[in-house]
UniProtKB/TrEMBL annotation:
Name of protein: Type II secretion system protein GspI C-terminal domain-containing protein
Protein topology in the membrane: Single-pass membrane protein
Annotated family: Belongs to the GSP I family.
Predominant location: membrane
GO CC field: plasma membrane; type II protein secretion system complex
Alphabetical list of PANTHER family matching this protein: TYPE II SECRETION SYSTEM PROTEIN I-RELATED (PTHR38779:SF2)
Length: 129
């Protein structure tokens, strides 16, 4: 009777190589997920900042030419809370070449943003004096 010496299963080196490949793939996937979460958070902050700036622009248009409170004071920072976050709003006014028309720049930044990439949105509109 002939005895065959056939090996069954994987060798240790094959298992080690497979584990190395899987670990590299998982590390890349984890890094990709981290970047995706960071980008989503930054996008959310930018969207909320845009909403705050648009709200302030609407106030500037509605209250333009009135002697009452005009939202954030021109040239000074004001704070507002929206969606549980505090935002700094700064309004800058400039005269235009057209009489009775002013250019308004609204700058919104997140008050509690401790990261290096500060969320900031700038919107511009024109209003009547």
């Amino acid at each position: 009777m002939k005895h065959r010496n056939r090996q069954q299963g994987f060798t240790l080196i094959e298992v080690m190589i497979a584990l190395a490949i899987v670990s590299i793939a998982l590390a890349a996937l984890t890094q990709s997920m981290g970047v995706t979460v960071l980008n989503q958070t930054q996008l959310e902050s930018r969207i909320v900042a845009t909403w705050v700036a648009e709200d302030e622009l609407v106030k500037q248009h509605v209250l333009a030419g009135k002697d009452s409170e005009k939202g954030a004071t021109t040239g000074q920072a004001n704070t507002v809370v929206q969606l549980g976050r505090e935002w700094f709003i700064e309004i800058r006014s400039e005269s235009t070449t057209f009489p009775g028309i002013q250019k308004r720049l609204v700058i919104v930044t997140e008050a509690n943003d401790a990261s290096d990439d500060l969320t900031s949105v700038n919107l511009v509109t024109v209003v009547r004096d």
